[in-house]
Amino acid sequence: xxxxxxxxxxxxxxxxxxxxxxxxxxxxxxxxxxxxxxxxxxxxxxxxxxxxxxxxxxxxxxxxxxxxxxxxxxxxxxxxxxxxxxxxxxxxxxxxxxxxxxxxxxxxxxxxxxxxxxxxxxxxxxxxxxxxxxxxxxxxxxxxxxxxxxxxxxxxxxxxxxxxxxxxxxxxxxxxxxxxxxxxxxxxxxxxxxxxxxxxxxxxxxxxxxxxxxxxxxxxxxxxxxxxxxxxxxxxxxxxxxxxxxxxxxxxxxxxxxxxxxxxxxxxxxxxxxxxxxxxxxxxxxxxxxxxxxxxxxxxxxxxxxxxxxxxxxxxxxxxxxxxxxxxxxxxxxxxxxxxxxxxxxxxxxxxxxxxxxxxxxxxxxxxxxxxxxxxxxxxxxxxxxxxxxxxxxxxxxxxxxxxxxxxxxxxxxxxxxxxxxxxxxxxxxxxxxxxxxxxxxxxxxxxxxxxxxxxxxxxxxxxxxxxxxxxxxxxxxxxxxxxxxxxxxxxxxxxxxx
Length: 499
Ligand code: FRU
What we know:
The protein has one helix spanning 3-16; strands at 34-45, 48-56, 66-72, 79-85, 96-103, 109-118, 126-135, 140-142, 158-170, 176-184, 189-196, 203-210, 219-227, 230-237, 254-261, 266-274, 282-288, 294-299, 316-317, 324-329, 332-337, 345-360, 370-378, 384-393, 399-404, 409-413, 426-430, 438-445, 448-453, 458-463, 472-490. By secondary structure, the protein is mainly beta. Residues 37-38, 54, 65, 97-98, 114, 164-165, 220-221, 283 line the site of beta-D-fructofuranose.
């Protein structure tokens, strides 16, 4: 095994011992040690889910990427495996960047990833190629024929300096396909389709989808799948311009719903919308579970919102979102938390028709690992102008979610969460006013909040690094609101005697 990987494995083994369990998210994957970005190689292999991730074991900031590795039986409790890849070859010397995984007919696991190296010239641009590694679920050998796709495989107008994030799948006839992000010299994103008979030798097929200039510039981390009879394409564009409250400035995530043409070689979009309306969600990738569910997981950060934002004392930075089951309804991609989460609910606290008029705290409603279902509506014969939930609250700090029905605006705001930096703290989303009624499911882990609105029609995700002692939850209304609430603790040890 190469020295760089051996060194990284020894380092992470030692360094991760310095991080107490309590200082990590409980059921969201965080890096073994150091820094994490995109989810990579999300797959089911040898009876377990495998999730790799963009990984810098040596510091809590982005640098030369490795692939971290974890496995899980239920997508909620993760066990770290040793780092899977280090940047040790000439073609990936400056980083093993994002990619995907699948099982080969001979039982080996295939990783397809981007090798990144900086060219020697004055501009030091990142030259990107696609590479393979094969392994047994723990140890991987880089393929002797690497790189398998290079600048020579690109159509003329595409840039080899932006050519990355292969997403691989297998067709029913056994052939392999992969889409890879690239862009034109003007930096307009294009997704290219490549095919292979054996998973090792690849050839260019077609331009699968392209950016007409409406949605950012370069398109990163594509993911393609069929769902409920439609073709769905996820991309994470860089450099977006805002469009009302649908898309915001900077890096974003887009779900296109459409269909395939030209024998599956071209994706034709029909509609698009944001995948998440919060602050921290990027580069999502999906898997088809053995029982047929399409499950998505994203990096629960965003490049524009994470600079200088970490807490060095935690010794890790970056988290994955909750795995989310996807389905289509009314032409939109709906999301709901993976159903396995419900098995970890305990101590239900429930209230019906509670009147909120001013500030309200409810006995038993608090905590930092919580699953809450809330429905609000105007109290009979009344109206309300604003409804607010504060959480991760103590005397000094809180994060809040507020809804103003007459504006149809929902806002997440972590300005008062204890952050001392001027990165992004708020985001607003357009949430239709249906007679003032709003349904939310809110999942708190130690350092994050994920809100599923109206049965998963929209989601709002944010990380919150407030000290763990802030466990308060309170409600507030301007006007008269009636609220139903079902609150559960998550992952609390319930002693046997009490059950
Ligand atoms: C997306 C991304 C990918 C790239 C990786 C590098 O967040 O920029 O396009 O492969 O991160 O870490």
